[in-house]
């Protein structure tokens, strides 16, 4: 099938080898997953006490030079599974006690995910489903998910799209991401937190502060607050690490400073953001990066 799911509009036939050479994300029509886990390090209203039921999909339509998950986003590490197996994975995560089902970097498998979710819900899946994406998405692709996704967690990486070109190799990042975030909000409405402290519906927008780019970060937060006010949560992250290909850009080839992060947090407070998350302590360590070893991706083989 010809793929134009994301703003890159590769027009690639992902079922053929020739088509994959044209595809920026390098994903075929076969679902590939690098890890299925209970992830304790998400926002508290997503992780809860048991952890978010994360499914890390292989491949990505961005090429962020500082990607912490580059093994699977750029390297494509992962195991192939059927749509039926993906549906089973959702139910298995629920059985493990997951607080939610969290789909991480899922956009290039939208059609397969829709089919798998519809099947799992018919079979009893009742947990909130979270769409955790880089934000570089098309409205028409997101609309395919209407009624299936309860919570959206998009990135808003850059306000200045020139930074998107420089660090993520993608044109018009803010133009597409801002429209995608508006579309996501129209599909969920204002955030709803249950009596158990867990989010049931709504949106959390994540923003990673980069070295030297705290002014751009402030512009991202200002746009989000002006557009959505207290109807969404904003997660400001300080976990940047100069890994993968960040060394190609000397200005970001260093850790984020405490002062840079504090400037962004102070701006958030100054403009009146109250529904948000900040990271405290040293989060820019490799121990917080998941180990993409394929756990729980394939069916467990019973002994004997």
Descriptive report:
[4Fe-4S] cluster binds at residues 60, 64, 67. With 304 residues, this protein is α/β, with parallel strands linked by helices. The protein has a single domain, classed as Aldolase class I (TIM Barrel). The protein is built from ten helices and twelve strands. The chain has helices at residues 17-22, 44-47, 70-73, 83-95, 110-122, 139-143, 161-168, 173-188, 214-228, 258-270, and strands spanning 2-3, 12-13, 31-39, 52-57, 79-81, 101-104, 129-133, 151-154, 192-193, 199-208, 233-237, 276-278. The strands form two sheets. Strands 3, 4, 5, 6, 7, 8, 9, 10, 11 and 12 form a ten-stranded mixed beta sheet that branches. A two-stranded antiparallel sheet has the order 1-2. Helix 9 links the parallel strand 10 (199-208) and strand 11. The protein is globular.
